[in-house]
């Protein structure tokens, strides 16, 4: 989380510095309309930089994932960049339109402009001739972008519609690139501001085209076939085992993948609930009835059905040198820990984790399925993991205090949490208040992809 906050702040500070260097006299002149022109330029630059980086992150690139802590963190940055672009674009629009309204209402007097000298540079002259068109189409693209970003932020908006409409942002973005190229002060293109803006706009343009061609993640996709389906009614969860071809690169416990069984619904991310065996290439997902799509899966899926898998993604892979780990799985958040325990049982005598590492797994759940809990207990026993199951209606809620009581050596441990975001945030605050180094040793997956 700290990395993505620093990245967002760094982008804003860097671009503000470059803009001030390119326009040092922007706010030194008197007059409202001079300030207005500078504000329109500045907010336009910030909004387009945020949209450009967000557009490139939408491609799910490999190289920044490890540094940012996983694709889930990258998507959180993508979301924050979208919110930043939305807010700054609205401010940009108000600076552009507000003074026009004020002039129309008689509150401001439009400044008198003298004759402009002819433009000698042919490129600048061409762009100048396109200003009216760029302003017109840019305004409509702004309205479309605001609507589409707002819909993406509304959790009640169905995922299947979000999947279809969010792609249209790429069209709005391409129009706004044209708007920016034409209306950015021509002299700024030969400054460091322009040298940064140009590759960002180019990268965003390529990304937008890839999005529109539906080629996002194409190089990491394979087609699999459902081998088995098991439904656990007590916890309303479906276990799906999928046979994979040789193209799957393998995965590590704790990673996730995108799976698509219905093209109209699009691909959904699911944590992988199985270890990787090259001689038996399969992948297992456990999905809980949390929405319209997941509730329908048990009726829509069938053994032998073909599905498309993309991945693997994520860095929630239990990598540290701590001799003790504390795992906390809230509800369906137990999934990555199941995968890790299966991996540990498979490795047996040749562990790829610190020798003698001790692990306590806390599973907090409001639902009970005896068959599912029995399988969980078997996995824990096979991996030599101490299992603590807390059913909220019977045992009360899991708290930091209860974890510390059960694991007296908690100060030397690392904590790995997967579950509801609010639950994770509460545990993080609780342990931070007790002096635990949460920035270094509290690992939480932000499993929200919109």
TrEMBL record:
Cofactor(s) needed by this chain: FAD
A GO molecular function held by the record: metal ion binding
Location within or outside the cell: Membrane
Keywords annotated in UniProt: 2Fe-2S, FAD, Flavoprotein, Iron, Iron-sulfur, Membrane, Metal-binding, Oxidoreductase, Transmembrane, Transmembrane helix
Key word Flavoprotein present: yes
Span of domain FAD-binding FR-type: 203-319
Pfam families: Ferric_reduct
GO cellular component terms, A-Z: membrane
Record bears the keyword DNA repair: no
InterPro entries, per the entry: FAD-bd_FR_type, Fe3_Rdtase_TM_dom, FNR_nucleotide-bd, MRET, Riboflavin_synthase-like_b-brl
Superkingdom field: Bacteria
Membrane-topology annotation of the record: Multi-pass membrane protein
Transmembrane residue ranges: 39-59, 80-96, 140-157, 169-186, 192-213
Protein name (record): Ferric reductase
